What we know:
6-stranded mixed β-sheet; 371 residues; 9 helices; globular; 14 strands; 4-stranded mixed β-sheet; alpha/beta
Amino acid sequence: MCARRFLFVVFILTLLAVAGAVAFHQWGSRALLEQAKPVGRFAPPPPASGPDYTNAAHWIARPGLTNDPSWWRPTDEPRPLVPKGAHAFYIHPTTYLKRDQWNAPLDDRESRFRAALFVQSQASAFADGAAVWAPRYRQAAYGAFLLDSKDARGALDLAYADVARAFDQFLASVPAGEPIILAGHSQGSLHLSRLLREKVAGKPLQRRIVAAYVVGWPLSVTADLPALGLPPCRSAEQAGCILSWMSFAEPANPDLVIDSYEGSAGLTGAKREREDILCVNPLTGTRDGAAPPAANRGTLVPSADLRSARLLPGRVGARCDRGLLMLEGAIPLLGPYVLPGNNYHVYDYALFWDAVRTDSLRRERAWQAQR
């Protein structure tokens, strides 16, 4: 895909990433709920209708694909070297906006195109040090995140079942014992949390995890992380840990996030509390870290004509404050989709694209040093 199409659609469609956060936000009026609700009832599709992850066509990115979108690079950034020994499994956010069914069909052209764009703008940050694998999956329609119903839970379970099967094929395809990076955003991070709990925590695979980037999805250090098997990242040189952040600018109003999060049941069954929200600053690689704008070597910013993107250094700093990643400095114009309360959810990766790249490479080196 040409850079112009990529950047244009990222500008217009980054709003799609909102879907993952809405599950916590309870955002919108009753009218919004009715307008967003998929028509009909959720009905499990026939088992044979799902993706076949032995078929390269059911992957957005994986080794051997032609025009792999994870190899996209900003202007003046070199293409990554051939990765040596690491493998990244990335789960994209919601890209299906229609209401005609509860889960995205695999052949929906608009959804497939948007998913590839998110691989370009997010998963590309991991491609310098890892071969990126990103599955197509029957993602839950955005309306499923606005509802708490049997239909919505069925849609999310179906989406996760695809992700879990893709992960199994990913593990079967990469050499045993080699390091693995896990990453997601929004709906992708919701599925990644479940993947960590069911397929990583307490299993031999846990020792192979370089880091898990559960971005744009709130996690409780005490009520969620014990079930995921990995600790929070407390140092920049730590391997085998979890990073998570939610980006806000001043004046921030996180009530849309916090009101539904606080007091809800975590993955361990304990109640989630505001003070326990995990914030790992991608600029420092540490829990509850702080860094000035000068520490940010590259925010992903489009050019005025939208024909290219460049990394703009030294503009955006950040500090963790009561579970939120508070932005500082002169934030460049990234697009029109800053959410209520100065929530930069849709730009969680773009704000720190180079920092994420650097962080993943550093943690991979730390993992190798521990062998």
